[in-house]
Structure prediction request, 230 residues.
Amino acid sequence: MGNPVFQPSHFTAVVLFALFASIVFGITQRETPRRMIRYGIYCFVLFVGSTVAISWLMFLIAR
Amino acid sequence: MRYSQSGMATVENKNAAANSGSQPGSQPGAPSGAKTGAKTGAKPGAQEGFVYLPLIAGWLVPGAGHFLLRKWGRGALLSGSILAMFVLGLTMQGKLYSNAHEILDILGLAGDLGNGLLYIASQILGLGAAQTQTTIADYGTRFIVVAGLLNVIAAVDAHNLRTGRKS
Prediction:
């Protein structure tokens, strides 16, 4: 087993995960295009924001 | 508690709204009459054929369910997102679950199976790692599992579009 072809940083992995999941959530959970985009952005911000917040929390606990 | 479809965008509710929409005093919250009526009136045979075809096609090939329903934009976005997530997972040396000896393996296998033909083709081609040894590979494993779960959500969405529960 060789090295992975794609080696993202932790933050890049989070952003990619949030991006793709938000696109699917937006399209499947809302009916009109405008609401799809708004919900997709909302999910993306929540994904990334909560990850950053929990990361800081764990950093402060570990110190 | 009994399941109620009252207020949902089902075909029956839409037809009812279309019939009563032009009359004054129609139900508040019901879909607007003229547009919905024109939509449903244009497709009287919308419920004909195999209703589960978009569900099965969408599961086997990401986005195919929406393509069958001529939702090209939505299908392309769903297909691109799920494919990208699956491929990125593989390039991160993510693990493809193949056996189900433990409960966590069963859950992982269930998620992987959501990818449909992508999972089967990857198993045949021997893609993916047998074991994860790095953090990146662990992320890759999650990417593959979540891609499968998102594909199931997309396939169910195609089914809802087909049955008229969603427009």
About this structure: Chain A touches chain B at residues 1-8, 10, 13, 16-17, 19-21, 23-25, 27-28, 31 (CB under 8 Å).
